[in-house]
Amino acid sequence: MKQHMVVLTGAGMSADSGIKTFRDADGLWEGHDVMEVATPQGFTNNPELVLDFYNQRRKQLLEVLPNPAHFELAKLEKDYKVSIITQNVDDLHERAGSTDVTHLHGELLKARSSRNENDIKAWTKDIIIGDLCAKGHQMRPHVVWFGEVVPMIDVAIDICMDADILLIIGTSMQVYPAASLMHYVPKDTPTYFIDPQPAVKSEANLTVIAETATEGMKQFLKLITN
Q1: Which residues does residue 193 pair with via DSSP β-bridges, in sequence order?
Q2: Which pLDDT tens digit goes with each residue over 182-210?
Q3: Where are the alpha helices (DSSP H) in 76-207?
Q4: CATH 3.40.50.1220 fits 1-19+66-105+149-226, yes or no
Q5: DSSP readout, 67-89?
């Protein structure tokens, strides 16, 4: 039976593809206050701004490609049972060939009813005011905003509880509830943490690789194949 490798990925995973990490040093997201564009209140106050913000993100996503780290993770499925749990709303893991991807914070290439979170549709074009669900409610991006429930967190916890190896890539593990997931893996599970500015240090079962996703994956592959 293949070992179960659980991979937690964040914005740093997609940075090498040209997608900016979540916030710039000044705390703004693409020049916007996060509260304006990533909260239910922001959507209520200015739906046009929020829809335009995500329309721009969607256009960018359709122009970029998976990076080498995405492809290396997909290749690991030959030797491991690989479960990816991502905070990213892009589809780059899937495009690289990964077959088991759980999106904690939703998916940019989907839209949902603003009144029914389970009414979800594939969506690659702009969402505009007047795009309605079958019951007449405005469509919105299928992303989890600050202050909203993370519906896939229980699924992610179950996956982590079955981990033989934990790999964390490109996330500070500071945003909850995602940050809590590493505490659900079985005790003494070998854990590898790839991040150019890690907030932790290597210890007994934790190996820190202070690199970008692409460079860090090269070092990780050497460690697990030696």
Answers
A1: 168, 208
A2: 889 999 999 999 999 887 788 889 999 99
A3: 92-96, 153-160
A4: yes
A5: -HHHHHHHHGGGTSEEEEEES--
- pLDDT(21) > 90: no
* Domain ranges across the chain: 1-19+66-105+149-226, 20-63+108-143
Domain 20-63+108-143: homologous superfamily in CATH: SIR2/SIRT2 'Small Domain' (3.30.1600.10)
- What are the angstrom distances between the C-alpha of 153 and each of 28, 74, 86, 106, 176? 26, 23, 11, 11, 10
Spatial strand order in the sheet of 191-194: 101-103, 81-86, 4-9, 165-169, 191-194, 206-209
Enumerate the active-site residues: 105
pLDDT tens, position by position, 70-128 = 999 999 999 999 999 999 999 999 999 999 999 999 999 999 999 999 999 999 999 99
Tracing tokens 């290439």 back to the chain, one arrives at: 109
Task: Count the alpha carbons within 13 Å of 50 in the hemisphere toward its beta carbon.
Answer: 23
pLDDT over 70 at 29, yes or no: no
pTM: 0.92
* Nearest alpha-carbon partner for 132 in 47, 56, 61, 42: 47
Cα Dmax for the chain = 58
